[in-house]
Amino acid sequence: MSILSDTERHEDITSLELLWKEEDEALLQVETTNPVLLDPVWEIGVPLQTPFEVVNGTARWELTTSSTRLSALGEQLEASGIQFELEYVRRIGDSDAESILTDRQQQVFLAAVEQGYYETPRRATLTDVAESMDISKATASDILHRAEGRIVDWFVTTAVQ
């Protein structure tokens, strides 16, 4: 498969693993020292759902974020010279968004997102998140677990139906 050898030979690629291949599709795990495409996402603190598709040089991302962060991401992508097209936006009603998480859950959850706790591989540990919020690791774990549970409950009852 020429895309594998071409990708593997790229100087910024530190690791490439073929996870599966089926006819003309493959799932790769790629590690790079120069994640140009991901830098704007990390800089703005937008959680990126992985894996994401790259077809003919075009990446397709699914994001869940606020309109403010989405706008900031668009500005950052433009500033980085990365072309993009927004396919779809689904808005959560303001009252819904405010009622999903408590203020404290939102603070800790957003800190975890911004630090890279939900990235793969993680850029931050639970200890990192806890220290940045000046709380114990057990408290951070409890708050994040409750926040994640509320987000999952909301998703299952609202977004999926």
Helix/strand layout:
Layout (H helix, E strand, L loop, with lengths): L1 H8 L3 E10 L2 E8 L6 H6 L8 E3 L2 E3 L6 H13 L14 H7 L2 H13 L10 H8 L3 H23 L2
Helix pairs in contact: 5-6, 5-7, 6-7
Description:
It comes from Halogranum amylolyticum. Residues 101-152 form the HTH bat-type domain. This protein is α+β, with helices and mostly antiparallel strands and 161 residues long. It folds into 3 domains: 1-34, no CATH class; 36-91, no CATH class; 94-161. It is built from 7 helices and 4 strands. It has helices at residues 2-9, 39-44, 67-79, 94-100, 103-115, 126-133, 137-159, and strands at 13-22, 25-32, 53-55, 58-60. The strands form 2 sheets. Strands 1-2 form a two-stranded antiparallel sheet. A two-stranded antiparallel sheet has the order 3-4. The longest helix has 23 residues, at 137-159. The protein starts with a helix and ends with a helix.
